[in-house]
């Protein structure tokens, strides 16, 4: 590849064109330039958080901010992929040994060719980063120093030009110029300092990358599968790996692409054009890990934007649906026309007459146990069906009109499956109104709702949101529960307020979570959606968990007619690898099986919450959901920043993230470990995302 140096002005222009292409206004771009984001290297040198705060300071609107953040991650992935390809396939002029840490799934470092480089990739084994020397947080920075050496050769010809300034290097001994041993660039000595630490990634690479990305997008909308749900056919391969000439499974000196997943189309074009002579169909895969089989291509996760816009979509659809239904009646699948009002009456009558049918209970049991792990008889059905079942349902039924809703400030928050309102029912309460639109058969909604609520109805634990009752009135399905003071979640505490948690508090909260989930497990209830958002802070010393037993494929697949699964933000971060693999591209509603949730998948999710509390970061922070799914399917684990706490606690985290579910500890084991570790420990969070990786062994 010919190397043409780009002047600073040109780099700046490319940067500006890129931002314009992403959708930033001239004012936004000026603001970023004033903040020293003048070229891609500068852009990549800031963390997501820093970029977010820059965007906030520049008053970028939510949508533009999102585009900026997403496009930066995607661009960086392309950049890394491009670098790993070109450095592997084109040496020279690529860097001879890019210092990339790659580790094996067995948990040891496969290679560490430091070589002064700071390029870091994610690892598929568990390792903790060494204590950072500098507190500067940075995303993956391409910073591989050149290995300059001063040439002493006599130059007979003056034709050769400086790769940086494009002026002749001159001839004879008199002209001072230097050559990089790795990438073979020749530059004037005075130009050397201006080239930067970008050995192996030349401005020409950058130009090609940029051209390709812009051309492929054809000036149109940013083609990110997450932001444009309908932009890609489900029949197309969802993602392609950048081909790699290095097989990391066999090489001991390999440079694995840190983020192998590239959006379809873009990935193909970039890699094809840049590396056509070396193209192979080989995919990057760690040994003994899985990948999505052809029949189960990587699914699309449609993520809520801002708070929960998908809920708004659902509400809109619901409203339209109800409007149409109230005017025309509802056409049932059998062709029967049922007036909506009659249907509501029917529900109300049913509420007080009987519990769910045996068939529904059986189906639910299958779902509750994931259809895989638990025996059907293990479900405690006495309160669902049995001699006293109806009495027990009546006991917890609350008349909707006896709840007073806060008129000033009714909504506490909205989630994917409904909204939570502040109310009064013989005391302050939280009322969660569930969206049951995913059950297309209206006559089955009440039954399905009861099955979901039954998980709450049977629980009494200090660390579980207290269920007070339920209602099913006028097509409203809701649950009344104790109002958590402050209505704050652990997520808000860690990621919004950014309250540092000391180790004793962290351990205490972790223990409470484990005790609550363990209690649920003894009741044969799986949480299925354990996340910091679903852990509410009752006080500084007490948490309660909520939102358990609700999640199902059916819920995530609603609304239909759109591609992909509709999930909350960061849902994929907590998903156990076996669940990620089970997430099919399409939902088949005739299939009774749900996700293979197990106790072990709850343990995996607990590991993620534990990680959040220890580090203040989300696992796989800053990565797009499809990348996370792909990594999980390949056994690539989250990068661990530096954490200074007892080894047992680190090991605990690692064991919770075991790829094989049976290798994860049980919750009682975790509680025992959390209790056993000496109390006087402090957590020193790393201020940054990974800095330099150390092997698993060196830490343990
Ligand atoms: N019992 C409660 N007391 C006080 N606040 C609550 C209670 N239950 C839920 N909330 C708050 O209500 C809001 C919405 O909760 P909900 O569980 O519906 O959605 P979510 O968990 O935020 O989002 P999603 O379920 O889509 O991930 C959250 O901010 C949550 O903290």
UniProtKB/TrEMBL annotation:
Entry's Gene Ontology BP terms: meiotic cell cycle; nematode larval development; positive regulation of vulval development
Provenance organism: Caenorhabditis briggsae
UniProt keyword terms in alphabetical order: ATP-binding, Meiosis, Metal-binding, Nucleotide-binding, Zinc, Zinc-finger
Biased composition (Low complexity): 248-261
InterPro entries per record: C1-like_sf, Kinase-like_dom_sf, PKC_DAG/PE, Prot_kinase_dom, Protein_kinase_ATP_BS, Ser-Thr/Tyr_kinase_cat_dom, Ser_Thr_protein_kinase, Tyr_kinase_AS
Protein kinase domain location: 406-689
Family (UniProt): Belongs to the protein kinase superfamily. TKL Ser/Thr protein kinase family.
Binding site for ATP: 432
Molecular function GO labels: ATP binding; protein kinase activity; zinc ion binding
Protein name: Protein CBR-KSR-1
Phorbol-ester/DAG-type domain location: 145-199
Region ranges (Disordered): 84-107, 220-264
């Amino acid at each position: 590849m010919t190397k043409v140096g780009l002047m600073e002005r040109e780099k700046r222009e490319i940067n500006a064109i890129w931002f314009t292409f992403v959708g930033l206004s001239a004012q936004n771009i000026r603001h970023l330039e004033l903040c020293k984001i003048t070229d891609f290297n500068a852009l990549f040198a800031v963390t997501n958080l820093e970029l977010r705060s820059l965007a906030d300071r520049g008053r970028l609107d939510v949508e533009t901010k999102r585009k900026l953040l997403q496009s930066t991650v995607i661009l960086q992935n392309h950049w890394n992929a491009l670098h790993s390809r070109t450095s592997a396939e084109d040496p020279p002029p690529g860097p001879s040994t890019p210092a990339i840490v790659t580790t094996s799934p067995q948990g040891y470092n496969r290679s560490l060719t430091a070589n002064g480089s700071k390029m870091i990739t994610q690892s598929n084994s568990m390792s903790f980063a060494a204590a950072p020397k500098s507190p500067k947080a940075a995303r993956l920075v391409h910073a591989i120093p050149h290995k300059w050496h001063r040439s002493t050769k006599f130059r007979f010809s003056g034709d050769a030009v400086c790769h940086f300034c494009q002026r002749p290097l001159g001839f004879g001994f008199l002209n001072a110029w230097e050559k990089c041993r790795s990438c073979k660039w020749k530059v004037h000595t005075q130009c050397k300092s201006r080239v930067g630490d970008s050995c192996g990634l030349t401005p020409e690479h950058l130009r090609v990358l940029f051209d390709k990305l812009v051309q492929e997008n054809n000036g149109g909308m940013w083609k990110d599968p997450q932001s444009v749900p309908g932009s890609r056919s489900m029949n197309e391969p969802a993602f392609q790996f950048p081909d790699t000439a290095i097989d990391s499974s066999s090489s001991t000196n390999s440079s694995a692409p840190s983020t192998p997943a590239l959006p379809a189309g873009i990935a193909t074009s970039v890699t094809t054009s840049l590396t056509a002579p070396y193209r192979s169909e080989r995919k990057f895969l760690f040994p003994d890990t899985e990948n999505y089989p052809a029949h189960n291509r990587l699914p699309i996760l449609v993520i809520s934007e801002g708070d929960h816009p998908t809920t708004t979509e659902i509400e809109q659809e619901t409203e339209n649906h109800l409007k149409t239904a109230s005017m025309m009646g509802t056409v049932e699948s059998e062709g029967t026309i049922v007036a909506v009002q009659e249907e509501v009456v029917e529900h109300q009558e049913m509420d007080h007459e009987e519990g769910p049918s045996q068939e529904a209970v059986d189906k639910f049991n299958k779902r509750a146990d994931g259809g895989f792990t638990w025996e059907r008889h293990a479900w405690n059905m006495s309160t669902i069906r049995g001699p006293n079942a109806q009495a027990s349902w009546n006991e917890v039924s609350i008349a909707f009109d006896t709840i007073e809703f806060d008129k000033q400030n009714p909504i506490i928050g909205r989630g994917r499956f409904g909204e939570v309102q502040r109310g009064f029912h013989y005391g302050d309460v939280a009322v969660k109104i569930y969206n049951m639109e995913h059950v297309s058969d209206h006559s089955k909604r009440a039954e399905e709702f009861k099955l979901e609520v039954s998980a709450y109805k049977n629980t009494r634990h200090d660390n579980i949101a207290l269920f007070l009752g339920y209602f099913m009135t006028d097509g409203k399905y809701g649950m009344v529960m104790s109002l958590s003071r402050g209505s704050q979640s652990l997520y808000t505490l860690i990621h919004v307020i950014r309250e540092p948690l000391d180790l004793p508090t962290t351990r205490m909260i972790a223990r409470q979570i484990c005790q609550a989930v363990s209690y649920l497990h003894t009741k044969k209830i799986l949480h299925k959606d354990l996340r910091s958002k679903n852990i509410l802070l009752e006080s500084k010393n007490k948490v309660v968990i909520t939102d358990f037993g609700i999640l199902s494929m059916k819920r995530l697949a609603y609304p239909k007619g759109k591609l992909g699964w509709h999930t909350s933000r960061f849902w994929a971060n907590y998903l156990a690898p076996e669940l990620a693999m089970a997430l099919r591209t399409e939902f088949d509603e005739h299939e009774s099986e749900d996700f293979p949730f197990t106790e072990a998948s709850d343990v995996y999710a607990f590991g993620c919450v534990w990680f959040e509390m220890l580090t203040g970061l989300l696992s796989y922070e800053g990565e797009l959901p499809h990348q996370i799914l792909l990594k999980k399917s390949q056994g690539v684990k989250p990068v661990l920043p530096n954490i200074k706490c007892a080894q047992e606690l680190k090991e605990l985290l690692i064991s919770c993230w075991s790829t094989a579910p049976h290798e994860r500890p049980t919750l009682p084991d975790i509680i025992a470990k959390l209790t056993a570790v000496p109390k006087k420990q402090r957590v020193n969070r790393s201020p940054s995302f990974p800095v330099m990786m150390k092997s698993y062994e060196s830490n343990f």
